[in-house]
Amino acid sequence: MNHMEQALSEKRAAGRKIFVGYFPLGDPAMGDQVARVGEFIADGVDVLELGIPYENPVLDGAVVSASMTRALEVTTPAAAMDSIAELRAAYPDACLQIMCYYETIEAMGIEAFCEHAAAVGADGVLAPNVPDEAKPALAEALDHAGLLQPLFVPVDLADADVAAFAEAGRGYMFLQAQEGKTGPRDGVSPRVEGNVDRLREAGATAALCAGFGISKPQQVKDLMAMGADGVIVGSSIIDAVIAGDSREYISSLRAALD
Fold first, then answer.
1. Rounded distance, CA 200 to CA 158, Å?
2. Which CATH topology does 3-7+16-257 take?
């Protein structure tokens, strides 16, 4: 069993909700990368979603887009990916998952990308915009490299796709909590509860974690009431780091989960 899959399975068995926190690799605004990731872990983040910068992040709002722009001014996607090795050395038991756009994988070559992701110590790779024709090759390469592929589940999940998601999901699934791009917003879509129910009824065993627009403890509580196994938070964490209160902020989200 993959390291992250085992860790998340153990957390769920212990009744612990899962906190997935986005960390933008290479962004100088985050400060010392190793130290900051250590804070995230100490304050309750269970899975580090390590964002590889990309010049055209079409699914991301202003906060993540600006973060990627800052990163690309001082690094490259390949160098950002290489930096994961330093994090793995510092935190050998951490769940480290790459978040990237498919174009980054394609540029490096699917097999080469997956082999390198495993070599630097990643546990999995989530790319929300993989074209249908590339999905089989990517899934095979990730499996060969021993990596998980968390799946991105759109909020407008079609009935025809539920069974496929339920069968293929491992580790966790990223349930889109709101339409549109990433970035702090109010509320959550009531459709999340229906998606959770449909996936579970179809036999999904992966953790069902909701993200997109999540920034407040009340949103976290609302998603837990809808049956989600955890939450995914990104843009508002970046904002909190820049504002200098990320430790208190992350701890408040952890408290809402618990």
1. 15
2. TIM Barrel (3.20.20)
